[in-house]
């Protein structure tokens, strides 16, 4: 197996990005996670990224006991107690679209998070996740 070393992340990143903004509520976030079958949503202000909301973050506050059913009625009371800014990850590491897939793999392997925003000249242009990375690696075999 010979991986091409200089392949940029732009070849595997998701470009049609589902986003939220800080004024959206957590019910909206949950709906977007389910409708799009995704696990990470960048939170933006215009074209600038402000944070990243993960499904895990949402589940952590909605069901402290961890009992999550796909079709369960969410405790909207809990959602109303928090806003997106309070729940999202703020200290984000971002990469540019020219970052190599190998570099992305190294970043994701050494950190707790599973998604990276791709930012060129302060503009959010994509998102890459561990799933994108695994799919790419499987294609190489």
Describe this entry's structure for a reader.
With 141 residues, the chain is α+β, with helices and mostly antiparallel strands. The protein has one domain (9-140): CBS-domain. 35% of the residues lie in helices and 18% in strands. It has six helices and four strands, in the order αββααααββα. The protein has helices spanning 26-36, 55-62, 76-81, 84-87, 101-109, 130-140, and strands at 40-45, 48-54, 115-120, 123-129. The protein has a two-stranded antiparallel ribbon. Strands 3-4 form a two-stranded antiparallel ribbon. The longest helix is centred in the N-terminal third of the chain and has 11 residues, at 26-36. The termini are close together. Keywords: CBS domain. InterPro entries: CBS_dom, CBS_dom_sf, Diverse_CBS-Domain. Residues 13-72, 88-141 form the CBS domain. This is CBS domain-containing protein.
Number of helices: 6
Number of strands: 4
Instruction: Give the topology string: H per helix, E per strand.
Output: HEEHHHHEEH
How many domain modules? 1
- Approximate shape: globular
Helix percent reads 25-40%
Q: Approximately what portion of the residues adopt beta-strand conformation?
A: 15-25%
Briefly note the structural class of the backbone.
alpha+beta
Report the radius of gyration as a whole number of Å.
16 Å
CATH architectural grouping? Roll
In order across it, which strands form the biggest sheet?
A: 1-2
Task: Please tell me the overall pLDDT.
Answer: 88
- Low-confidence residue ranges: none
The name of the CATH topology is CBS-domain
Reported for the largest beta sheet, the result is:
2 strands, antiparallel
Q: Please name the fourth-level CATH homologous superfamily.
A: CBS-domain
- CATH class value: Alpha Beta
- Please give the alpha-carbon distance between the first and last residues: 7 Å
């Amino acid at each position: 197996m010979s991986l091409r070393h200089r392949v940029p992340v732009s070849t595997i990143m998701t470009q049609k990005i589902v986003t939220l903004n800080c004024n959206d509520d957590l019910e909206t976030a949950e709906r977007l996670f389910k409708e799009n079958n995704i696990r990470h949503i960048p939170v933006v202000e215009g074209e600038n990224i402000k944070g990243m909301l993960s499904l895990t973050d949402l589940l952590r506050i909605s069901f402290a006991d961890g009992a999550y059913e796909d079709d369960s009625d969410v405790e909207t009371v809990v959602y109303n107690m928090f806003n997106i800014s309070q729940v999202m990850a703020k200290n984000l590491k971002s990469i540019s679209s020219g970052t190599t897939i190998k570099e992305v793999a190294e970043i994701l392997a050494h950190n707790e998070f599973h998604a990276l925003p791709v930012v060129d000249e302060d503009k959010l242009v994509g998102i890459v996740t561990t799933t994108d990375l695994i799919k790419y690696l499987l294609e190489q075999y």
